[in-house]
What we know:
Layout: H1 2-18, H2 21-28, H3 38-51, H4 55-68, H5 75-89, H6 92-108, H7 115-127, H8 138-153, H9 160-187, H10 191-204, H11 211-224, H12 228-241, H13 248-266
Helix pairs in contact: 1-6, 2-4, 3-4, 3-5, 4-5, 5-6, 6-7, 7-8, 8-9, 9-10, 10-11, 11-12, 12-13
Amino acid sequence: xxxxxxxxxxxxxxxxxxxxxxxxxxxxxxxxxxxxxxxxxxxxxxxxxxxxxxxxxxxxxxxxxxxxxxxxxxxxxxxxxxxxxxxxxxxxxxxxxxxxxxxxxxxxxxxxxxxxxxxxxxxxxxxxxxxxxxxxxxxxxxxxxxxxxxxxxxxxxxxxxxxxxxxxxxxxxxxxxxxxxxxxxxxxxxxxxxxxxxxxxxxxxxxxxxxxxxxxxxxxxxxxxxxxxxxxxxxxxxxxxxxxxxxxxxxxxxxxxxxxxxxxxxxxxx
Length: 270
């Protein structure tokens, strides 16, 4: 938590230096005298700017609501709007601040009608920072954590299908990383290592999108250590589960060869 707070402090400083002071002045003096609902007026102006992707302008309007009208009915929505400006800006610094704002919203307003939206966007703030499979997967794991929390907490949300799709993508990214480790072991001919890595991947995520590659190289690894009978079902899974796969034809060849070999052994042929 201390590390997150430090990242937030740094991000605030960076964005503050980059923001236009004139914009802040304009928004601070934006409420006409005699306005009946100044909080609603500021919020609506913020939403208009947000829809036009004017992140800094929208941010200033939302900040006024959050900081000045602490009892306003639109304060929770303004808090989300503020977070959305950071997410929309989509820089390394702004995404850190988006995570902080969504996390605070969920802490302050856990029963709010838009808590599911905040949880989804929290996941997206991590999702946008996911790195390639060969690199550090910390943000991928955080995205998975946030999306899984959504699935557990909001099973009736209208956002559920979208969240599940993002969760699948994040899990695939993490498992792409594990697959590449297993494939490296296979290429290095350390078959016990590749077998262990591939089996663990399939156990932890049996719905992995690219599991056809795992099936194939797991089968190949098992054949290399003379466990042909154990390898056969993995080749058969490729044929059963994938109508299209770059491994499909080779899998069929392996199945035919292994069955023929097994039949020859059963008949006592050399």
